[in-house]
Write a structure and sequence with these properties.
heterodimer, A: alpha+beta, Beta-Lactamase, 3 helices, 33% strand, globular, B: alpha+beta, Arc Repressor Mutant, subunit A, five-stranded mixed sheet, disordered C terminus
Chain lengths: 122, 322
């Protein structure tokens, strides 16, 4: 089967993508990953999951603007995109992709990741 | 407001480090030997690790909800759909493929759920007590095996991370011992509930642990434990009485299935697996409160006692008829 691994490797075809991972929002667990995230990747993924939880909490239960869709972090050299692919009370999954900013068209990359995310769990 | 566990001395190694090391050793040996079969772990909570070519395909443990509970209790798969898929897959045994074929769950979502279930089960095994383990090369039955199987390194690394996170909490929480009650009116004013906190508060009746809530909600034990810790920090929950877990013998050991049967029989009192614990003595009407005089476990019964059992109308040994 290896469906998740294959799907994540396809995400790496997006220009500038270095690492793609499916991360559990509730626990920060890297469920599956593709690419070389390095030894610090699990800790970084847990941090990103925490950011997603914080954002969800900040919206409150009413969520007047709708559910959290994605979290983007831009640094001098990186573009980190976390796309919510499955959301339930207290849990859910993120598709996290680490891009090299110099090689990435951020708007196009966000659209391509969105397309991949919709098929990831199917 | 009470404080959960705080009984570890500064500088003392956490109890789980030894357990994790033992599990790591066993799983690594099985991976090296490409074992296909099961590892039966006796202890608290104990469990069975299913292996294929040394990789892990499933873990059964009473300490964490299995995939079936996660699918059904969370409402991801409706019960009638599950029952139909289970029946249809009776011949092939491929329940997972049947669930996907019926579009009750996506293949990717099922794989993610099975991986998370394995990580959760390994977490509770590592956080528990290991009394004894046994490697059996006979494959066991499991309803939803993970395909492809996963190597032990990912499971062990994730387990280590989880245990370290819990150990670093300001107020350590034990998922199988600390019971929780809602702190009605004690939460900060204006704090809006969300992310399933209402459900947690409804379950927090002072008698449920994180494990109990995980089973009730169809969620992972670790995820619920983290959420309880956060809600405790927010003043929404208070710890109640702690569940007492029976102590396990410290002389943990390894058995190979089919070996040393006679020795096992003599040592049966040391074995702490649920099915091998000697039953409690039963009181009979008109009998004394003395426990039954047991024969040596697994040893030969003496001939006189055997003849008494075979005698017509005999219900048991002498003390039974008292």
């Amino acid at each position: 089967m290896a469906r998740l691994s294959e799907s994540l490797h396809r995400v790496l075809d997006v220009a500038g993508a270095r690492t793609a991972a499916l991360v559990d929002i509730g626990t920060g667990t890297v469920v599956c990953a593709a690419g070389d995230g390095g030894a610090a990747f699990p800790a970084a993924a847990a941090g990103l999951a925490g950011e997603a939880r914080s954002a969800m909490s900040a919206f409150g239960p009413a969520r007047p603007g709708g559910d959290l869709d994605e979290v983007a972090v831009v640094t001098g050299s990186r573009f980190l995109l976390s796309k919510v692919v499955d959301s339930r009370a207290g849990e859910g999954l993120l598709l996290f992709v680490d891009f090299d900013r110099a090689q990435t068209n951020m708007a196009l990359a966000a659209w391509q990741v969105g397309q991949a995310a919709s098929a990831l769990l199917a | 407001m009470g404080t959960p566990r705080g009984d570890r001395l500064a500088g003392e190694a956490p109890k789980w480090s030894g357990m994790l090391n033992r599990l790591s050793q066993v799983l690594t040996e099985c991976a090296t030997g490409k074992v296909s079969g099961v590892i039966r772990i006796a202890g608290e909570p104990g469990g069975t690790v299913h292996l294929a070519d040394g990789a892990v395909v499933a873990i059964d443990t009473p300490g964490a909800p299995g995939p079936e509970v996660l699918l059904l209790r969370s409402g991801r798969v409706p019960e009638p759909g599950w029952a139909a898929a289970f029946t249809a897959a009776a011949a092939s045994g491929e329940v997972g493929a049947e669930l996907v074929r019926r579009e009750l769950i996506g293949a990717g979502e099922l794989e993610a759920l099975l991986r998370m279930a394995l990580a959760d089960a390994m977490f509770v095994l590592a956080a528990g007590e290991l009394a004894e383990y046994e490697v059996d090369n006979t494959p066991g039955d499991c309803v939803l095996p993970l395909e492809p199987a996963i190597g032990p390194s990912w499971l062990l690394a994730e387990t280590s991370r989880r245990l370290a996170v819990l150990a670093s909490l300001p107020t350590p929480v034990e998922h199988d011992r600390d019971r929780w009650a809602s702190a009605r009116g004690a939460g900060p004013a204006g704090l809006a509930l969300g992310s399933g906190q209402e459900t947690i508060l409804a379950l927090a009746n002072g008698r449920r642990t994180a494990r109990d809530m995980a089973f009730a909600l169809g969620r992972g034990v670790y995820a619920v434990t983290l959420q309880l810790a956060q809600m405790h920090a927010d003043g929404l929950l208070v710890p109640g009485a702690r569940r007492v877990v029976p102590a396990q013998p410290s002389d943990s050991g390894h058995r190979q299935a089919g070996q040393d049967k006679a020795q096992d029989a003599v040592k049966s009192a040391d074995v702490t697996a649920g099915e091998q614990v000697p039953p409690l003595p039963r009181r009979r009407r008109g009998g004394t409160a003395q426990p039954r005089r047991g024969r040596p476990a697994g040893g030969p019964m003496d001939r006189a006692a055997l003849l008494r059992l075979l005698r017509p109308g005999a219900a048991g040994t002498d003390e039974d008829s008292m």
